[in-house]
Amino acid sequence: MTATTRTVAVLGTGIMGAAMARNLLRAGHIVRAWNRTRAKAEPLAAEGAEVAATAADAVRDADAVLTMLYDGTTVLEVMREAAPEARAGAVWAQSTTSGLEAVGELADLARAHGLVFYDAPVLGTRQPAEAGQLTVLAAGPAEGRAAVQPLFDAVGARTVWTGEDGAAATATRLKLVANSWVIAATAATGETLSLAEGLGVDPAAFFDLIAGGPLDMGYLRAKAGLVLDGALLPPSFAVTTAEKDARLIVEAGARHGVRLDVAAASADRFARAAAQGHGDEDMAAAYFASFDERPAPGA
Fold this sequence. Notes:
47% of the residues lie in helices and 13% in strands. It is α/β, with parallel strands linked by helices. The protein has a six-stranded parallel β-sheet, sandwiched between helices.
C-alpha cells in the first residue's frame, strides 16, 4: 500500500463501472463495489474487491466515492441512502452522465454531508474503459484534487479540468456537447446503411467512394462494421443508454434556448430500436429503427 492508495466505494458496476473498478484495483487501490443487482458486482470479488451488501456499507469510512449509475435520478436515490454513512471530507467523483439540473442537486447533497464533490463524467465506451484509457472531464475544488487525481489516473489516460465548482456542471456541459456529436454520427451511420440497403447499394461501394477523403471517419467505419458484421453484442454503449443521453441533450438545449432536432430524432430512433428488441445491443443497432421488420444487411 502506498501513500496514494485510496479506499474507493464504486457504486454501479455495469459496463463502465465494473471496468473502472478493475482499473482502480490494478492501480493498487482498495475497492468496495456495490450494485443494485448484486450479481453484476460479484465477479469483482475474484479480482480483489469487497462486494458490499448496501451502498451505505460501501461508502462507510471510504476515502472516495465513485458513482457510475444509470442517470442522475438513480444517483440521487442511492446517495441519499449512502451519504449519511460517508466520512466527512471524503471526495465524491460523480461520473454518471446526468442532466444539468441533477448535478446541482447532487452537489447540494454532497455539501449537506460534508463530501467534496467533483462533477466527473467520462468520455469513452467499453474498450477504453477496460484499458484505463477514458478521458475524465472534471470540475471541482483545487484543494481536493490531490485526493481525487489518483483515481482519475487509474481509470483514464487524460483528465480535462473544466473549473473549480462542481455544482456549475461545466464538466457535464462539455460531456453533453461531446455526446451530441457521438449520437449524431451514430444516427447518420445507421441511416446511411439503411438507405444503402433500401436502394440496393453495396455498403462497400460507399466506403470505397469516401476512402481517404474528408468524408471518411474511423468512427463511421467502426459503428458500421458492428452492424454489417452482426457484432452488436456485447455493447460498447447500449441503445437504451444512448436514448437516455440523447434526451438529456435535448433537455439541456431547450433549457438554454437551443432546439436540437437531430438529437431529438436520434432519441426517437433509439426508442424504436429498443422497442424492436435491440435495447441491450450496441447503439449502432439504431440502424434497425429505419425498418418495420428488417434483417441486418446481407442476412
